[in-house]
Amino acid sequence: MTTLAAGDQAPAFALDTADGQRHSLAGALRQGPVLAVFFKTTCGTCDLILPYLNRFIEGCGGDGWHLWAISQDGPGRSRDYVDRYGARFPVLVDAPGWPVSQAYDPPATPTLFLIAPDGRIEETSAGFSKDDLNSIARRLAAHLGRPAVTVAEADDGQPSFRPG
Asked: What would the pLDDT profile of 75-94 be if each residue is shown by its tens digit?
């Protein structure tokens, strides 16, 4: 398998949240772009990035696009993890067998895929990178016709980069 890159067509998928609510990529793209973030509950770099994901909601608003965290763990562990971090976005469970992870083949956790409304991957980021987070936020704001936001300040006490 090869990790998807900018310009590739995003594979269609539908997954449930830990609470059983179904989400489909095709349906979401009719409303706007999707930021899909693959993570594991045992990933230290995921612990670092999760609070920044909430900043996308704060900065870009919650309408006209979707932010989904795609967990590579079971429903119980996924629910507990995102509750601990106060996630303000749906967490989809890629189980059993990780079919979506296999289709997207993220090289690390976390890996982010910004999917444009036409279904193409617009930008990817593996691990934690403040530059990448801010670049994705700018692209997302452009899709939404909103001013660009900074979701990762350079001097916020966290490293600028950490591999996944």
From this structure: 999 989 989 999 999 999 99
Q: Is the Cβ–Cβ distance between 124 and 111 less than 8 Å? A: yes
- Contacting residues for 142 by C-beta, under 8 A, at least 6 apart: 148
For residue 61, the tally of other CB atoms under 10 A from its CB is 13
Query: Which domains are assigned to the chain?
Result: 40-144 (3.40.30.10)
Q: What's the first-to-final CA gap in the chain, in angstroms?
A: 19
Q: What is the pTM of this model?
A: 0.97
CA distance 57 to 54: 5
What is the full DSSP assignment across 41-75?
A: TT-HHHHHHHHHHHHHHHHH-SSSSEEEEEESS-H
